[in-house]
Amino acid sequence: MDATKLVVLREIGYQIPAHCGICQHADLSADGWGYCNRHSYVHQKHSEASSRLSIHRQGSCQQHVLDEGALAALGLHGFAEFVRSRLSETP
Q: The sheet that has 26-28: what strands, in order across it?
């Protein structure tokens, strides 16, 4: 990455927020929809005791855990330092 670009990105507080697409708990399909393996709920329309929580790749929650493999698959290269691994982190 160009050194001056990196300086400007740091100066402006550039960040890539944590999201389900880079979370260890996500089980996502190619279209971006899937399930969270950490959270479930009691579904009112089905007979099962609980259902996996439906999620989208761009969503997020406070229990996000960064998946380094998913992060590498995004090909962020020099931008990886701008990913917040948890939503509570500040730039």
A: 26-28, 33-41, 51-56
